Amino acid sequence: MDITDFYDTFFEEAEELLADMERYLLELDVDEPDTEQLNAIFRAAHSIKGGAGTFGFDVLQRTTHLFENLLDHTRKGELKLRRDIVDIFLETKDMLSDQLNAYRNSDEPDQEAFERICETLQRLALEEIGQDLDGGAAATPPPKAEPVAEAVPDNLPEAVNPAGGEQRIVTLLNVGEKDRQLLVEELGQLGEVVSHQGDEQRYEVVLVSSDSDDDIEAVMCFIIDGDQFQIKPAASGQPEVAADTPLVAGEGERVVTLLNVGEKDRQLLVEELGQLGEVVSQQGDEARYEVVLASSVSNDDIEAVMGFIIDADQLQISSAGAAIETATVEKTAVMPASTDTVKVADTPKPADKSVGRSTPKATNDDASKPARGKAKTKGPESSSIRVSVDKVDQIINLVGELIITQSMLDQTVSEIDGVADSALLNGMSLLQRNARDLQESVMSIRMIPMDFVFSRFPRVVRETAGKLGKEIELTTEGESTELDKSLTERIIDPLTHLVRNSLDHGIEPPDVREAAGKPRTGKLVLSAKHQGGNIIIEVIDDGAGLNRDRLLAKARENGLPVSDSMSDDEVWQLIFAPGFSTAKEVTDVSGRGVGMDVVKRNIQGMGGHVLIMSRPGEGTTIRIVLPLTLAILDGMSIKVGDEMFILPLSAVLESLQPAKEDLYAMAGDDVVLKVRDEYLPVVAVHEALDVPNAKTKLTETIAVIVQGEGRRYALLVDDLVGQQQVVVKNLETNYRKVPGVSAATILGDGSVALILDITGLHRLSRAKKEKRRPERELQSLEALTDKALET
């Protein structure tokens, strides 16, 4: 097996560990650091170091080695935390991330940056704790573990670890030779390998290490599964039991063998057997555990009692005189006498007639401490699996094709006799329901919680607030709200810019806030929630709010067409104009007028829009409205002329037949429709898209009231065909960008229908009217000239 097959798993798990590390570092209280958080940070660094060593990523291993040592001093209380020290730890985390990305791309990490961070960590250790980190060991690759003799002596000497560690037996189950060698080398990095022996089915390593079982597990899981190894402390002062020694029951005794029974059930069963007689001895592991019982009850009685806890195939009972071949018993190693903090397994001695029966009834403490590994037949299954995004996308595409095929069948079936073919119609109805359930289930696979996005911002807020000299309290709400993975990745950059903008322009400096009667610490809230088929993401601050007069003055200075009669919503949207900035000076945070226009354009590219609500002196709320997914859409089919179009159902508010008295002509060719005291711009779809054979008389059309980017429009169409679910196909990828159109889909009859972009369609309509205006003015002038000549 090629070890490179595990690279992707290591990279993904290391990324998760680094994300956890950053979160814990940001949550640390430097005055009273939480011990559990410090331990979690240490374990993350230790696990990454172990995996890096296994795969030969030397630079990553050496960096984490230094970092791990510093963290060890920190959790022991030898290094006192300060904000600047946490900043160095965060910088180290960033460096680890860069090194990880370099190895992922098959490159070597930046050597200069590596040397710089090592020097920084070494200098910190010298200044704060007065000692070097391993005498500069970070500059040399970690040594490989020396081979250990395969043979194990009959009586193992006491294992002495200079660091004072716990002696354990690490058992490898069904592990090939190459992986065994890698694992033994890796265990050598964690401590001293006293001995190792065995074969592919069962291989035992005696290890002396000060690391915890969890740390050992974390390193080994990069190479083998959790059910392929067992870890347990070595028993103290117990004699070895030969692997092939049969366990013999004496007169009136029997051997009860438990197969693949977990620790908890074993303890219960031993207690139950103690009620039936005297437990003479017990030994074994989770795979095979043997109990010698002296009892006068029958085998059937024993089976009846034990049948309440385990299955019949997990139990074997042999009567007096029967020799039972035991499973391979772990060879025990003698623990150092000075180590008094290690828990010792109470492994009972095998039955010995010459010694006599001195074992009392078994209790929970009498049972051998179980191995940490899980037996394959009884171990809990993993609750999740890692699947490539490409595979998920392929499934989604196939489900999309299934939806298209189902639409074709629906259209065909709709033309047949419903009475004569009622069974077929019922079957099609069931197919439609199942196809929709399948689509929703598959789409949910791509949905990930917004915590994936929000978890990045504590670091952004911390660093930006530090540069600006502001005190900020960040709150996140709705982290469990789910959004399509492709959208979460694309929303990060726009959201980052909005957060930095709120910190720079929105929230005032502490002294200004205090003078205004506000707390010195400003509040920034990131929230997410579902609303219909959309997700609402809000960036809320309690700052000074937007200044209407200042925005208008800046717009006039930039040459933008503005007027004092503009509504507040229109004025707030000015901040998204290219090159627009109210900052008095340019900083490394903002002030160049670059970014907000890109934010709006990117959000619109995801099918969303941005709304701004602001109150002077109270703060600003920036609301982003996005669809939950871009793959499949609930749409309204409309007909214009002989063409079929799709409107996103989430944008459709209502439809009505326009009356003549509700239509008002404006300057030029503009027309508005009055709907409950609100005047909506009228967009004739056939004019905007040049569709022939469409209805041109306004009162004969149907007005579909839609909403886009916070504004409402009245789209004039010929007919409403119905509601249907469509598979979105990217038009730019397959053809080119078309104004007024966001995407395309395939209908049930195999034809292609365009999915309309509401706001883009309105802009296209306005542009065409502006283009026609000079022609109309010329025609009007010619008519006036002709009339003058006639008179």
Task: Give the secondary structure arrangement, pairings included.
Layout: H1 7-27, H2 35-55, H3 58-75, H4 83-104, H5 111-129, E1 166-173, H6 177-190, E2 192-198, E3 202-209, H7 213-220, E4 229-233, E5 247-248, E6 253-259, H8 263-276, E7 278-284, E8 288-294, H9 299-306, E9 315-318, E10 323-324, H10 389-413, H11 422-445, E11 447-449, H12 451-454, H13 457-468, E12 472-477, E13 482-484, H14 485-506, H15 510-515, E14 522-531, E15 534-541, H16 548-557, H17 568-572, H18 596-605, E16 609-615, E17 619-627, E18 632-640, E19 643-648, E20 652-656, E21 663-665, E22 671-675, E23 678-684, H19 685-689, E24 702-708, E25 711-717, E26 719-727, H20 731-734, E27 741-746, E28 752-756, H21 758-790
Parallel strand pairs: 12-14, 19-28, 23-25
Antiparallel strand pairs: 1-3, 1-4, 2-3, 5-10, 6-8, 6-9, 7-8, 11-13, 14-15, 15-17, 16-17, 18-19, 18-26, 20-24, 21-22, 22-23, 24-25, 27-28
Helix pairs in contact: 1-2, 1-4, 2-3, 2-7, 3-4, 3-5, 4-5, 10-11, 13-14, 14-18
